[in-house]
Amino acid sequence: MSLPRADYDPRRVCHNPCPNVTLGKHRRTVGVYLAGALFALANWTFLDAAVLSAHAKSKWEDEPPVHVTFVDWIPGICSLLGYLVINMIDKDRVRGEEGFGDSRAVWRARLVLFIGFALMAGGLAGSVTVLILKYILMGYPPQFTYYGYANVSQSVALMLSAVVLWIAQNTSNEYEYNLTL
């Protein structure tokens, strides 16, 4: 089945259009709150797993077979450092707009931004590695593999929060005026 020629644009990737959601003048505020909620959810999920691990009792033994250790914390720390680095970069400096230094300053800002994204990607890769090597391959029951899944969900939610905050900070605010002569 082919679409009529008038409705088809060969430059489009998807045939079904994505819904156009407009939030009006509150786009930036909604984005910042959504990023904050994702950030809180990410850290709450992992801290829940860490507290649950500290107080876990197994049905089969006195001591549970696995706990959340420092190895589980490392991917979250890397993702959190990447999150901080990404959000400390001035967006106008990365774009290289007028009045923000020479091309070397733009290059350095882009390098630091790359390091931030690399830290977040390393945190995600590390959390998946810990999940597979520490929890899945050892064959622990689902109550203990939750610790690994919480670690991965923390890294994913931190990445999504960084992206949402980056996009929200690049939108105009209702109180922002552009004065040009």
UniProtKB/TrEMBL annotation:
CC per GO annotation: membrane
Transmembrane segments: 32-53, 73-90, 111-137, 149-168
Bilayer topology annotation: Multi-pass membrane protein
Annotated localization: Membrane
Family recorded in the similarity comment: Belongs to the UPF0220 family.
Broad class of the protein's primary localization: membrane
Top-level taxonomy: Eukaryota, Fungi, Dikarya, Basidiomycota, Agaricomycotina
Pfam family, one: UPF0220
Stated name of the protein: Uncharacterized protein
InterPro entries: MFS_trans_sf, UPF0220
The organism's place on the tree of life at top rank: Eukaryota
SUPFAM superfamilies named among the record's database cross-references: MFS general substrate transporter
Keywords in alphabetical order: Membrane, Transmembrane, Transmembrane helix
PANTHER family: SMALL MEMBRANE PROTEIN-RELATED
